[in-house]
Amino acid sequence: MVSAEHKIEDSNNKVTQRSVWYKMKRLCQRYPLGAIGSFIVFIVVFAAVFADVVAPYDPTQTNAKMSLSAPSAAMLFGGDMMGRDVLSRIIHGARISLAVGIGSTVLGGLLGTIIGLMCGYFLGWFDLIIQRIIDMMQALPLLVMALVMAASLGPSLENTIIAISIPLVPQVARVIRSNVLSLREMPFVEAARSVGMSNGRIAFRHILPNTLAPLIVLGTAQLGSAILTEASLSFLGLGVPEPYPSWGRMLSESAAEYVRVAPWLVIFPGIAISAAVFGANLMGDAVRDYLDPRNQD
């Protein structure tokens, strides 16, 4: 009996594994660009998580003999003006980009969701005041508002996350509010009101879960923008300070003085930023298409 049960469990596990691989293969065939973007994001995440193992050198270790050394077997991406390994700094810089990108996206999404949910469900004077504030915030581009916030808070990892998350709030709030306005008139909300449920319970237990799909799509789309904004702030000296390696600051340190004598100092960090943003955007587009009810079989 025991062996028979084990055989049944093993066969069920094999069937489940085959179904998972079949679904993944089908998704890759249906959304090839999304698969490419997900693979790029996976590489960035892998590099960030296992940076201490993958990186060949300490990103802060200096070596005067390797200053401005060209790419070679010793340093695949060359060395910077202080003899630090560019490849190791790029790998460790993935941690900063992901920490800021994911942190600011989650924080901005959380604040925007709460504001949009309250505005869309309760309406009235609260919605009127908040929407005018959001209009003023959206009048400024994302980078400009992030610059203002970063200059006010000062350069640090936590302040950079806050500086980027605040400009993301208006767009999230607008999307969630538009969804809540349609959901609040649905029959299941009327049924919840008829049995005496409180407004807060209806809003957070019944309406909020139905806004997760557009929130996920918006979050994946904003991840690339957050990574690019962090690189821009670091390039201007308002992002994450030393000793943390940042892709944007790597560009700012070498773009003006060493771009002609050591172009690899600009090329490789630029490729890292472009690849991360490109992969996040491709993945976001695929998630949007996958969650779109019109594309369901």
Word description of this protein:
37% of the residues are buried. The protein starts with a helix and ends in a 6-residue tail after the last helix. The model has no long low-confidence stretch (mean pLDDT 80). 74% of the residues lie in helices and 0% in strands. The chain has one domain: MetI-like fold. The longest helix has 37 residues, at 86-122. It has twelve helices and no strands.
CATH architecture: Orthogonal Bundle
Q: What kind of sheet is the major sheet?
A: none
Shape: elongated
- Compute the CA-based radius of gyration: 24 Å
Can you count the helices? 12
- Estimated share of beta-strand residues: under 5%
Number of domains: 1
Helical residues, percent: over 70%
Which key phrases capture this entry?
single chain, 297 residues, mainly alpha, MetI-like fold, 12 helices, elongated
Concise synopsis of the structure shown:
With about 300 residues, the chain is mostly helical. It contains twelve helices and no strands. The model has no long low-confidence stretch (mean pLDDT about 80).
Task: Give the SSE map.
Layout: H1 2-30, H2 32-49, H3 51-54, H4 86-122, H5 124-138, H6 142-153, H7 157-183, H8 187-194, H9 199-207, H10 212-235, H11 247-254, H12 264-291
Helix pairs in contact: 1-2, 2-4, 2-12, 4-5, 4-7, 4-10, 4-12, 5-7, 6-7, 7-10, 8-9, 10-11, 10-12, 11-12
